[in-house]
Amino acid sequence: MHFFAYKGKNFSAEGVKVEDIVKKTGTPVYIYSKKTLRTHYGAFTKAFDEVDHIVCFSVKANSNISVLRTFAEEGSGFDIVSAGELYRALKAGANPKKIVFSGVGKRSDELEFALKKKILMFNVESPEELTALNSVAKRLKTKANFAIRVNPDVDPKTHPYISTGLKKNKFGIPAEDAVREYVLAKQNLKCLAPVGIDCHIGSQITKIDPFIDALEKIKGLVHKLRSEGLEIKYLDMGGGLGITYDKEAPPHPSKYGEAVLKSTSGLDLTLIFEPGRVMVGNAGILVTKVLYVKKNDDKTFVIVDAGMNDLARPSLYGSYHAIKPVKVSPSAGEEITADVVGPICESGDFIAKDRIMPAVKSGALLAVMSAGAYGFSMSSNYNSRPRVAEVMADGKGYKVIRKRETFEDIIRGEK
Ligand code: LLP
Question: How far is the CA of 300 from the centre of ligand 1 (A)?
């Protein structure tokens, strides 16, 4: 669900006409809806109301500090994968005691920064990382809380680039080695405290089964660890719940919650979740302007001012984003089949292929839907294009929460 809708002929973000925002900010621009962010957080946390749990929004999905602050104000924790994300989360008012640090390649300076900030737990992905974390903790004369990220070898049935819980993926420690690594850490790495167990099997998962299959494996490990005398308090299920971009019908967080609660009942653990996409995906749109409409033989290209540097998902994963006209034009009803493409000098630069869409003319504004997750956060300056502005709509008003970059910004630091 989300709060983007037509009011008469005008596509609006909460109570604000998108056209009015664009008059002030120009295009391309990302627009988020604060009410949608709050509603999504509320729905997710409500699904686990009856048990101890921490929702740690996955910062990589959308790292704008106003977005993070919105979640922090609702009581959210954060899942980070770099020191930069930790810096952002803290700037946004995050409680370090609700921060988990994931990622397969944490540097020692990043471990040090997070240890000094006293985060809740490190999700460790290799035996060597355990040793590295122990050394940093020893140097700082402290103890590091950790969970092992277990690779449960479960197929999440999603795009191969965003599937992470299979043996062939680089993530986590194989389930069959995990207990041994915990026991070795307990014996030899005295500056580590094993407090949890973690897994994350992939992203844009639209079925419940893969989550529960992974959970069943993790549960077996929890029992084994407890029988070895290890005090496991936290079970981190990662993120991954999918959203509707097109015709997908992912489970509502309440259904996901029911299944997880059933599977974990009686375990006496605090559950941790790292949702990203499901919190922000449908809470954001990318608004772009049609520059030219060009016909080559029998193909029509709608050339817009947003490129793969602004929204990489279609080019990278062939992903689908619905496209809506910001103003329903008098010619509404007339349709074309077109490729919606950006200005970048690559044939892979497209937002949509062979899309049946309303006939548009140069100057028309288009809203690219479901762009709130992995949209701006994956954007770049490729082709020396300044990164675009971000706006937060809130009730009847809106705020620019990131200024459009200038040419000065894009050469900053260069000699
Ligand atoms: N936790 C960990 C350890 C992760 O690696 C991820 C996402 C998440 C949580 C959040 O997953 P989510 O709830 O958002 O599915 N750029 C891709 C998605 C990459 C996901 C990477 N990891 C895309 O645009 O589809």
Answer: 34
